[in-house]
Structure formats: structure tokens, C-alpha cells
Amino acid sequence: MALETLDYRKSALLVIDLQNAFIHEEGTLGVSGVDTKRLSSIVPPLAKLIERCQDTGIPVIWTMQEHFAIDHNRARKKLLGHTARRKRVSALAGTWDEQIIDELKDLADFDPAFVIRKHRFGAFYETRLEMMLKMLGTQHLFVTGATTNACVETSIREAYLRDLDVIAVDDCISGVNADWEATAKQVWKQYFCEIAPSSEVLDWIGEQVKPRVTNYGHQLIMVDDIDTSVDFYTNLLGFTIRPAKPLADGRPFTAFHQGIALIHGKTREHRQLDHIAFEVNDVRAMDAKLKKAGVRYYTDLHDGPYGLTIYIADPDGTKVELYQVGATA
């Protein structure tokens, strides 16, 4: 699977219903005869993955299933629902059964705003999850939790139907029946998501956070007459001007949404290209790496127009700007 095509800054981890009701041997599933050892086996690798995501800044979103002792909506049904097939209604509001298991409770408390209560199988159904993911800029959703054929599968289908990239983390998902689970995962892989072990996801995170260039920024071109050049690019080629802060050295310039920027000051002895720019994920680590390699610098770390910035020389002397959005000196 090509995890390398994904961006950790556009990713989130979804942890579904790691509650006493479904994981603890004294919870509702346990007292109803379900093998909770099978369900709880996902806790160690899941805890490791959650901690890594939280350390890296990948949002970890938790769902808590919650039921009421009296549910008038469900009571209208003529056929028995799944709750009637257990010894009691699971995860009743305000009970121990509803709580996140002790092994993960501290991790769930890391950011209480990321805990979502739901009243049916799906993590998206009549919850705030969809809007939260939009606000976080999430495109890639890593799904974990219990149980495979109920809440996890429903949530995977819901995520897929919202055009998210869905990755089911294999050893961090468990259900009540091994045969059902195997069949479910075959269907998922065919239609709804990719499946990867947590070890592969951890390796992917490790590669993602290494100091590296993440995006092309812009190319700054020196011109004889900036007004004439701006007119050429806007009126003849249809470029659109992008608002931008002044350069650190105070020179006026015009930036375009199409990826280049123009600056006045071309002279006979200068090349037309002033510099090219790239966004990086960790400019301080990149700075240390480049200095260790003996790379020549034009300008050391400083607050540039797009974030914390360095200007270096490539082997041919071309000026390269490297910046990290949101970082400051």
C-alpha cells in the first residue's frame, strides 16, 4: 500500500468505542458471553500508535457510544434491535460501562475536545465528526477500535462515502467473531479502504516527520520593468495576483497564484532567476542538517514572509528559499 502518497498533516486517527462495555471482561459484552480477551488484544499496539500520533501532532479523535435506559426512538421498532441480544443495554449514560478503559483513559484526556459521543453505530451519524474533520483539514482517516462488524465497519463506510482516504489499522481493530471479521476485511479492501498494520503506520509517520521539502513554494523572477511584466502575466496570460507580505529585505514584488513572483531589479550581470522557494516540514531540523553538510548560506534563520526561513545555495549557486509555515524565530 502506498502510504507514502499521504500527508501526515492532513491525517487523523479515529479510535472507536474503547469503552468498558466492549473491552473489559466485566463490561456488557463480557457478561453477555463475548470473548473480551480477543477484543482487548488491540490495546497495546493501539496505545503505542495513539502516543506516536499525539507526539507528532496528528489529531486523535475518540468516539464513545452512549445509550439511554429508555430510548423512545428505538422503542418504536417492531423487530428486536441488537441491544436486546445482550444481557443489558451497553454503555448507559453516566455508568462505568460507558467509560474509556483505564489503559487508555489518560490518552483520551489528552484533548477532551476530540472526544465525540455517539448514539448509534456510525461515528459520523448525527455527530460533529464530519465538521471537525473539515476544520482540521483531514483528508486521510486512520480507523481503529471495536467492534469490527458494527461500529468500525459502519464508520469506515461512512468515511468512504464522504470521500476521505480511509486506512483500517489491522491489529488495532477487533470484533466478536473471527470469521465475520475476516469476511469484513475482504469487503473493506475491495470497496472502502486500505488495510495496514500499525507497524507500517508507525514507519510511515517516522518518514513523514523527517526534515524534508513538502511542497513547491514559488519562483522569484527579476524583471526590467515590473509594471510591464505584471501587465503581461495578468492581462495576457490570465495570472491572478496573490496577496503577499514584503520580502525581508524590503524589496517590493508581485506574487501570483500560479506559482511565480516578479521583482524589479534585473541587471546585465544578474541571472533572471532570483530564487526558488519550497515549504519544509521542520525548518530548524533542516537547518541543522544543511549546516552539518557544509551547505553555503545566503541568509540564516529569520522570519520571512511565509514563516521561519533560510536561504541557501544549491551546488550551482542558485538561491533556494526553505520556509516552514507557522514557525517563527
UniProtKB/TrEMBL annotation:
Keywords, ordered alphabetically: Hydrolase
Superkingdom of this protein's organism: Bacteria
Record Gene3D superfamilies: 2,3-Dihydroxybiphenyl 1,2-Dioxygenase, domain 1, Isochorismatase-like
InterPro entries given in the database record: Glyas_Bleomycin-R_OHBP_Dase, Glyas_Fos-R_dOase_dom, Isochorismatase-like_dom, Isochorismatase-like_hydrls, Isochorismatase-like_sf, VOC_core
Coiled-coil stretches: none
Limits of the VOC domain: 215-325
Pfam families on file: Glyoxalase, Isochorismatase
Name under which the protein is recorded: VOC domain-containing protein
Protein's organism: Shinella yambaruensis
